[in-house]
Amino acid sequence: WPLVVITLTQGFTNEDLERCFEDNAELFERGEKFVTVRDLRNVMAMPSPVQREMARRWQARVRDELPRLCLGVAIVSDSAFIRGLVTAIAWASAPVIPEETVPTFSAGVDWGLRLLEENGVNVPFSLRRYAVDVTDLHKTLPLR
Predict the structure, then answer these.
(1) Rounded CA gap, 144 and 130, in Å?
(2) What is the pLDDT of residues 121-138, one digit of tens each?
(3) What is the DSSP track for 34-58?
(4) Residue 143 near residue 30 (C-beta atoms within 8 A)
(5) CA distance from start to end of the chain
(6) Dist CA 101 CA 91 (whole Å)
(7) What is the mean pLDDT of residues 1-8?
(8) What mean pLDDT value characterizes the chain?
C-alpha cells in the first residue's frame, strides 16, 4: 500500500472478475489514496462480451468514487497490440483517472510511484525498495 497490483491471467472467469471488483471495493473502504498497476502480461485474448459488460457496469458504479481515491492505473502489457488497443479505447471513452499503458511491470511501478509522489502521498521505504527490486529483476530476465 499505496501501490496496488492486480494481476490477470489468461482464462480468468466471470467469478474471478467479480472477486476483483469486490477486492477493489475494499480498497475504497480504506478511504486512502492509492495507485493501481494492472498486470495484463499473461492475458492473450480479449475478455468475453459478458466480462466487458461486467467491467463497464463496475466502472459506471465507481465513476464518482474512483477519481477521489484512485490516482491512476498503469496497464502493463508486453504486447504492443494490446497497449494500442487500450489507448484506442481510452480515446473513444476517456477514463476518469489517469491511465498509462506500459510495456514492463517495472515501468508500471515507477509510473505509479511518481503519481503518488506528485499527489503528496507518502511512499514508504519498503515500497521504494520493492520498486528497485522489480527493476533489478526486469534487467535480469531474458527478452522474449
Answers:
(1) 24
(2) 999 999 988 888 886 555
(3) EEEEEEEEE--SPPPHHHHHHHHHH
(4) no
(5) 31
(6) 13
(7) 92
(8) 85
